[in-house]
């Protein structure tokens, strides 16, 4: 990209070496810049050539286009046609009801889709509005949008980094990069060139990135990438690429079913029309019958059933702290086979916690989690004896005395202001018995040497009560141990021997193997005179080693149970984290995600795998560590290539592309960034992995309700079509008039179907393995039950109709067939509540709405045969209560046979497989 006629700005190094693996001088040379920055004129030319430092949003979709997209479904057009035809037939109630359902679906879909595409806009909010930049040799505050490659950023604590930049100078610089890496720990930065070019983002210590913030220190850095060329910009591009209009499994299955339904309906209607025409039936009568059959064949209540099922599921899930942004996501979650989850803040508490202290040759256990005061220190599982308190108080004085963190309580929750590691050490010191206020009062601070990544130590010098100075030091245990010559013991301070060093190293190794991050603590006494040298080299040597602190981010208490539930439900849980492999693997094994046979790989190893190799290995990998946003998206695609239905959880910006690319994206409500929430289908308000399991249960229950309701609707329609087809073929008069078919659909397919859609979730739903993504909603078992039910209902209606033709008029025969068909379908709604359990094993009053609706429908049907006005409207004849009771008894036959079939099928399965009851 050219900034002027004489200067070419290279966004990526031409040699193939990354910015972090080149010296600062080489980077400045490639960017045609200097340590004093660009001139205003040069910067303006580059800004004109390369554009502003802003993230681009995707092409906006017009509201009209979104609205029209709601009418792409084939079944929606079938329903529109059914509504229009019903209106032409004078059935205004049916027409209004059908068209109202279509409009309701369109409005809900429009609202959801119109609000969904805000991920890139949310990313823009994370860029810095202002930044300090050197221009013309002077520091100026500029809009972040005006920054160009080659500019020199001037950074201080609290600044939001405005672009990706290579550090030129850094003084105790620490940055918070959790938005990109997902890890809560601050990252210590340095200027030194990194030798390896292929290292994870989290390990690029000489780089700062757009959207991150400065926690401490100062720095100068040369901008190497702006706008969409930054790491944040690459994530924005991934979100756009991942956010295709991929439909949910339920939407795909219903669309496929709709196509089959329309062709089957057209074939049957054409067959009956042809047969009637050959027999000389009047064309008007043929047309009315054909249209009525077409309307009868379409389950008008299906969209309402789906919408109501999903909406009620969303309501139940909100009570369980899961907010759904898109209705179809509920069903998708129910069919999930793989959950890819972040570690920090999702499976773990997201707060560093000291679990072990080692002092004076003894190991102590620290209880409690997070930054709260709850917990204490124990020795071999027992309460601490007073005799052992002194060494721990010595260690606590160092942990608190060399510490800049502060603990605050906000709305009952303890939080740390400062570095999480120092916060954890401060809490541990308080649990031991250390008093910060006393330390600050009795041991006033005289000097401080902040933590530096080169020496990996921090030290604070305080004035002791006797007037002398003491240096309190915390830092990397191996570095600290190398500077110690003495050892603090239960009996006092003595010289450190080689055996002592080996013991401490062995203890450090043992703690590290338990995935604990280990820090050492030491001190040194100084003379304290006015000429005392307080520099790092002078004070951080000849130390007295006091102890070790082992800390980690503990798993949530409920995470282990939630993972076990997922395993029982046949759902694979995979950890994807930016943390170190050893720590990630230890947490995964503790929670139950990983076993001894599972693999754990790093992002660098993922880079070495092709997409096909990753797809083949994915089922055996339980932990991915030190990964970037691109790695997460590749992992999602690898699982999807294995025909898995994948859910992705996370909270950081680096999770957003994978969340949007997954079948179901889940964001954390408390710790999640706005970008992640906008990209997600569902938000967990309590950041609790167990809530996801509850959502899976809801999703499975909703799918079961939709499936059994669809089967109920289609079985009824099948019975009506079979009855009409058989009668036309054998030459009987048409058994049901158009108004009969429409009434049957209104009475039996309306409210009873909605009641089935709201049936309580089966208690054993989480004991079944998830459905295959390729499984059709109308599988062999579904179709077999549907046709058997249709055959039985059509059979009893045909027998009653044939008997009526032999003993009475066509009108009375039609009235009898009409009544028995309504009775049979209403009774069958009770058996439809379970595909496997007979009706007497399903508690009747757990769905009181269905009971009430069936009783009202029975009453309306009987009343229509005793009320002259309603009888003329429905074209029925008078029927005594005795005859109604006989027809009701006949109508129970299909229900009884179907329930006996369930019993026989269950017994057969138990005998041949010795397996628990399953669907076939």
Automatic annotation (TrEMBL):
Claim: Phosphoprotein is one of the keywords in the record: no
Annotated TM spans: 71-89, 95-114, 260-278, 290-315, 712-734, 782-803, 839-858, 878-901
Pfam families: Cation_ATPase, Cation_ATPase_C, Cation_ATPase_N, E1-E2_ATPase, Hydrolase_3
GO cellular component, as recorded: plasma membrane
Superkingdom to which the source organism belongs: Bacteria
Subcellular location: Cell membrane
Major location (coarse): membrane
Bilayer topology annotation: Multi-pass membrane protein
Segments forming domain Cation-transporting P-type ATPase N-terminal: 18-91
Molecular function per GO: ATP binding; ATP hydrolysis activity
Family annotation (InterPro entries): ATPase_P-typ_cation-transptr_C (IPR006068), ATPase_P-typ_cation-transptr_N (IPR004014), ATPase_P-typ_cyto_dom_N (IPR023299), ATPase_P-typ_P_site (IPR018303), ATPase_P-typ_TM_dom_sf (IPR023298), ATPase_P-typ_transduc_dom_A_sf (IPR008250), ATPase_P-type_domA (IPR059000), Cation_transp_ATPase_P-type (IPR050510)
Gene3D superfamilies, per the entry: Calcium-transporting ATPase, cytoplasmic domain N, Calcium-transporting ATPase, cytoplasmic transduction domain A, Calcium-transporting ATPase, transmembrane domain, HAD superfamily/HAD-like
Keywords: ATP-binding, Cell membrane, Membrane, Nucleotide-binding, Translocase, Transmembrane, Transmembrane helix
Similarity comment: Belongs to the cation transport ATPase (P-type) (TC 3.A.3) family. Type IIA subfamily.
Name of protein: Cation efflux transporter
Organism listed in the record: Vecturithrix granuli
Organism lineage: Bacteria, Candidatus Moduliflexota, Candidatus Vecturitrichia, Candidatus Vecturitrichales, Candidatus Vecturitrichaceae
């Amino acid at each position: 990209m050219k900034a002027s006629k004489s200067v070419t700005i290279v966004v990526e190094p031409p040699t193939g070496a990354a910015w972090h693996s080149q010296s600062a001088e080489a980077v400045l040379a490639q960017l045609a810049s200097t340590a004093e920055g660009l001139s205003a004129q040069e910067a303006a030319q580059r800004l004109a050539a390369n554009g502003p430092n802003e993230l681009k949003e995707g092409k906006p979709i017009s509201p009209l286009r979104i609205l029209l997209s709601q009418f792409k479904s084939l079944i929606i057009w079938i329903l529109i046609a059914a509504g229009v035809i019903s209106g032409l037939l004078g059935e205004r109630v049916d027409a209004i009801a059908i068209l109202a359902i279509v409009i309701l679906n369109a409005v809900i879909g429009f609202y959801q889709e119109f609000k969904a595409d805000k991920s890139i806009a949310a990313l823009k909010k994370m860029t810095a509005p202002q930044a300090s930049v050197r221009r013309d040799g002077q520091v100026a505050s500029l809009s972040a949008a005006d920054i160009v490659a080659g500019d020199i950023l001037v950074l201080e604590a609290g600044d939001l980094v405005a672009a990706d930049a290579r550090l030129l100078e850094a003084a105790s610089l620490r940055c918070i990069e959790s938005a990109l890496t997902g890890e809560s720990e601050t990252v210590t930065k340095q200027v030194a060139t990194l030798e390896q070019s292929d290292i994870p983002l989290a390990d690029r210590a000489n780089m700062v990135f757009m959207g991150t913030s400065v926690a401490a220190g100062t720095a100068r850095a040369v901008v190497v990438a702006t706008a969409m060329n930054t790491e944040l910009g690459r994530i924005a591009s991934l979100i756009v690429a991942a956010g295709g209009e991929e439909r949910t499994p339920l939407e795909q299955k219903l669309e496929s079913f709709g196509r089959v339904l329309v062709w089957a309906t057209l074939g049957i209607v054409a067959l009956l029309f042809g047969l009637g025409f050959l027999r000389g039936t009047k064309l008007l009568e043929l047309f009315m019958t054909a249209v009525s059959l077409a309307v009868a064949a379409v389950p008008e209540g299906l969209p309402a059933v789906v919408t109501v099922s999903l909406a009620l599921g969303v309501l139940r899930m909100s009570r369980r702290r899961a907010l759904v942004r898109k209705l179809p996501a509920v069903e998708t979650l129910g069919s999930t086979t793989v959950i890819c989850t972040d570690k920090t803040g999702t499976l773990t508490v997201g707060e560093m916690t000291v679990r072990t202290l080692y002092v004076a040759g003894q190991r102590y256990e620290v209880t409690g989690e997070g930054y709260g005061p709850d917990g204490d220190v124990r020795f071999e599982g027992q309460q601490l004896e007073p005799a052992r308190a002194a060494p721990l108080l010595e260690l606590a004085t160092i942990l608190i005395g060399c510490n800049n963190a502060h603990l605050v309580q906000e709305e009952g929750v303890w939080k740390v202001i400062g570095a999480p590691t120092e916060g954890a050490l401060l809490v541990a010191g308080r649990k031991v018995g250390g008093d910060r206020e006393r330390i600050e009062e009795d041991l006033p601070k005289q000097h401080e040497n902040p933590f530096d990544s080169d020496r990996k130590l921090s030290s604070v010098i305080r004035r002791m009560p006797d007037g002398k100075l003491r240096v309190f030091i915390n830092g990397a245990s191996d570095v600290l141990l190398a500077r110690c010559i003495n050892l603090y013991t239960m009996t006092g301070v003595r010289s450190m021997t080689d055996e002592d060093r080996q013991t401490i190293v062995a203890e450090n190794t043992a703690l590290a193997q338990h995935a604990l991050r280990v820090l050492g603590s030491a001190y040194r006494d100084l003379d304290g005179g006015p000429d005392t040298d307080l520099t790092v080299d002078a004070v951080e040597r000849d130390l007295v080693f006091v102890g070790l602190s082992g800390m980690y981010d503990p798993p949530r208490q409920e995470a282990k149970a939630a993972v076990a539930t997922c395993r029982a439900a046949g759902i694979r849980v995979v950890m994807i984290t930016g943390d170190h492999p050893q720590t990630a693997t230890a947490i995964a094994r503790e929670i139950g995600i990983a076993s001894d046979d599972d693999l754990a790989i790093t992002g660098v190893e993922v880079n070495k795998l092709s997409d096909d190799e990753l797809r083949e290995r994915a089922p055996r990998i339980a932990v991915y560590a030190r990964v970037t946003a691109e790695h997460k998206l590749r992992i999602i695609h690898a699982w999807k290539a294995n025909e898995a239905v994948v859910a992705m959880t996370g909270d950081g910006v680096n999770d957003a592309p994978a969340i949007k690319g997954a079948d179901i994206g889940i964001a954390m409500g408390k710790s999640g960034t706005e970008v992640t929430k906008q990209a997600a289908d569902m938000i967990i308000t309590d950041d609790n992995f167990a809530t996801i399991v509850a959502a899976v249960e809801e999703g499975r229950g909703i799918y079961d309700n939709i499936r059994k309701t669809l089967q109920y609707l289609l079985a009824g329609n099948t019975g009506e079509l079979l009855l009409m087809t058989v009668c036309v073929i054998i030459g009987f008069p048409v058994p049901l008039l158009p108004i009969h078919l429409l009434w049957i659909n209104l009475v039996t397919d309306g409210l009873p179907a909605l009641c089935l859609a709201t049936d309580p979730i089966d208690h054993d739903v989480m004991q079944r393995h998830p459905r295959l993504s390729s499984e059709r909603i109308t599988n062999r078992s579904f179709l077999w039950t549907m046709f058997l039910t249709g055959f039985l209902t059509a059979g009893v209606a045909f027998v009653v109709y044939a008997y009526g033709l032999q003993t009475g008029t066509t009108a009375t025969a039609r009235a009898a067939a009409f009544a028995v068909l309504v009775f049979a379908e209403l009774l069958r709604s009770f058996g439809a509540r379970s595909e496997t359990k007979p009706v007497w094993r399903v508690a009747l009053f757990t769905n009181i709405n269905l009971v009430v609706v069936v009783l009202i429908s029975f009453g309306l049907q009987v009343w229509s045969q005793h009320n002259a006005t309603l009888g003329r409207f429905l074209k029925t004849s008078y029927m005594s209560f005795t005859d109604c009771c006989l027809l009701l008894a006949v109508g129970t036959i299909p229900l009884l046979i179907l329930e006996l079939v369930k019993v026989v099928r269950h017994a057969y399965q138990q005998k041949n497989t010795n397996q628990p009851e399953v669907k076939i």
